[in-house]
Amino acid sequence: MANPWLALDAGADPAERIRQVGRAHERFVGGEKAGGNIRPVVAESWRRSAVALPSADSTAPIELGDGELEAYRAGHPLARVLPIFRDLLGGLAEDGEHLMAVCDAYGRLLWVEGTASVLRGAERMNFVPGARWDEAHAGTNAPGTALAVDHPLQIFATEHFSRPVQRWTCAAAPIHDPATGGLLGAIDVTGGDHLANPHSLALVRATALAAEAYLRGHGVHTPTEGTVSALGRNEALLTFGGRRWRLGRRHSELLVLLLARPAGSTGEELGFELYGDDVSPVTIRAELSRLRRTLGPELMESRPYRLRAELDADFRTVPRLLEARRPLDALRQYAGPLLPGSEAPGVVRLRRLVDGQLRAAVLASRDTEVLRGWLNSSWGSDDLAVWEAYAKLLPSNPLARARIRELSNEYGLATFVQRPRN
């Protein structure tokens, strides 16, 4: 197949393809491997779906009730681009044969629009606002699988894992936050077999790109869903969805490393960052599995390992404030070194980076309040270079001169203190 994201080759017979894939699907759910005539993206999705779902007759659950749904989608970034979706895809949603659907990054449907008759058909498989259509809850489907593989694609008829969905064909494209690159959700068109053509895939992809361009031009950012505190503490504190976790040392290190790589990491990469060269693949997989069980699939996913939710972290806030030339605010946000007891190579590198950036900004500030804030801390009280910078701004300060002499003697250095002018 020339394009692996398209459901049908040019000239293929849709009816025959439905029969071929349907037979392969029944063999697969019966315990056989997916046949060689199944697209790799579909075969891999079937394998994930079979692990996650109790059967091939599963129905997507409703997660957001009417009141909760209304409040949630009103504040969602994709609400800002709903007019674009309706402008570009509204004609399809009004022709009596198609649905337009928008989901969030978790696969929860936010809007499903079309004529009353098509909407009634969709209701029979729970393709309704508030339902969870990621692969783990609905099996192989265009919006859910587009989110899983982060790529526009089509899912054709019997390629759906769940049997109640196999009378439909759909095309979907993921939508990203232009500021962070994180997933915001997906745009989907659902209808009959005739959607399995290059035009439907090109249309949803163009719609997703138009939405991202609008968000980029209007400075719309994904709202933060949770926070991580890891500065000045050996056990990271995670707050998300009204819950709080105090993580152990290894899980704190892994969380910090995952936050530092929002695009995702392999187990081997995380193992090196956590243990250096001396690590067994089994060990790191076990640690990651335990962390994923602790956090749950809404927060963490694998292949690659990455965090799904938008989490802010104190060790990322400090560099942002420094970039904005706000060293005093950065210093106030800095509670101490990142996971100070950790010896994990990746954490040590991040710790040195944050500390180095902050210290350099303090020295360059030529602001007595900023310098004093650093010197009054437990980590900066013995910093001779900062004491000397402070003394140059306040040459008549006896405490600064005394502290410089004390530290110089302790470090075995010659002392030079600028004397106050008479």
Automatic annotation (TrEMBL):
Pfam families per record = GAF
Residues covered by the OmpR/PhoB-type domain? 242-307
Q: Which organism is it from?
A: Paractinoplanes deccanensis
UniProt keyword terms in alphabetical order: DNA-binding
Instruction: Specify the taxonomic lineage.
Output: Bacteria, Bacillati, Actinomycetota, Actinomycetes, Micromonosporales
Keyword DNA-binding among record annotations: yes
Query: What is the protein named?
Result: Transcriptional regulator
